[in-house]
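Recap slide: Helicase HerA-like domain-containing protein, sequence and predicted structure.
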Amino acid sequence: MAEQTRAGKTRAGKPAPEKTAAEKLGAIQHGYVFEGQAIALGAAIVDGEVRPEAQVSLPLAMMNRHGLVAGATGTGKTVTLQMMSEQLSAAGVPVFLTDVKGDLSGLATPGEAGEKLLARTSALGQEWRPAAFPVEFLALGGDGSGVPVRATVTSFGPLLLARVMELNETQESSLQLVFHFADRNGLELVDLKDLRAVIQFLTSPQGKDGLAQLGGLSKATAGVILRELVALEAAGLDAFFGEPEFETSELLRTAEDGRGVITCLELPTLQSRPLLFSTFLMWLLADLFEDLPEVGDPEKPKLVFFLDEAHLLFEDASDAFLDAITQTVRLIRSKGVGVFFVTQTPKDVPADVLGQLANRVQHALRAFTPQDAKALKATVSTFPVSDYDLEEVLTSAGIGEAVVTVTDEEGAPTPVALTRLRAPGSRMGPSDPSLVAGTAQASPLAPKYATAVDNVTAFEKLGRAAAEQPAPQGPGPSPAGAPTPPPLPSPNLERVPGQAPGPAPGRTDDGGMLGDVVGALGGALGGALGGGLRSMARSVGTQLGRELVRGMFGTSSRRRRR
């Protein structure tokens, strides 16, 4: 029997028998009956009529199979995110979302009933009630009213940082070598000035041995990275990197009444720092992936993560970065985390990632140009066979309507359904700024993250070592006032000037190679700090004394950073 196509014809080209409205309605009703909890999306539209008896929903247990919310600007994507977030919170599932326009802050304020709103919800069979939800407001690097969010350079990792700095693949590889050097030598990279200090040391005459040992790092490339780093600082991005570092476990909280906390990241200056924004979201996912245990397929997800403006994540990304995204999305499902990409068209998402997004909410597309028409056809091709003419439906759907197909509890796609979506119970628009500011100030996270701290890290260690290092004995004096960085710690180094002799070559102390490396640096730094480093190396032992292991994005696990 020939298979029916989306255009309502068989693959042999013969017209398929037209289904009656009752048959279409019955198929949708049957396809969206689930045993477990589900997120109610709205009512199906069949032959141009809203049918409240055909409710379209998404099984809660299938939300960790990831999804896509797409559509042209102004078609209602933001309200869809708001509506889905409310129901997830009510089900006890924490939510993370980004607030590009400020509208999602309305989740913290009850909505207001209006004649049009009540008429719409009544037609959908929705019992609408105003409601506010537990919202945590965050601000990237303190850029906004929310609780400041920071990350250390070392945990951000070279791959993500290279993305922010817009380095090419050669420069990206070189940056990884710089991180490698810092990891091995106990030089903590907390903020940008730490990374700048390490690169300056490696490009100095005193650091030439270290540069040579790194092999693939040329002085010219290191200089390029250094200039890009200075440009980041000049652009004010240094406010994001530092301590205290945000712990991604804060995203998994529930309120006292059992509702999931909705974490809303403010992005008031997205246009001035799009790469930092998109890359930071992948850092959050990578950190969650590293720290969360495997849970398989839980009855409900531990967290649902809405990644807005997803196209920014993939534009001009290196192959290594795209591979890391694909791998993270594929594997984080088993950690109980669902990821929904939010963008304008499915073509914004690479095929390897798009193929993993089992739940689809596609708002209207516009086809004003040949390129738009091509994107429309590509979008239609990604849907299962349906009773709709999707090319027509996707260009004529109204605001707050979307074509939906999700994964049922057996893992199969549900029937495609043009759906009029439900209205959120919270305000569809921004909350009062004073409420946002007050919520952030009263947050239990504020005492922990509000104030930046500057501990002793690579910048201070290298600066102190340069000040304390005695002038080298040689035929000529050093220039007056010229700082001398410490000698390069080497895995084979047994002694440094001013340090007590080490154990015999055949020693079996627990410090191992790390003891040699950190002990050498400790001797160069001298004093209590150097002694502390040597003591730390002895106590770490062989198992934890290895070089820092990094994850798929070059990020370091929080458990290893502590």
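Residues 1-16, 475-549 have pLDDT under 50 and may be disordered.
The two ends are 62 Å apart (CA to CA).
(End of recap.)
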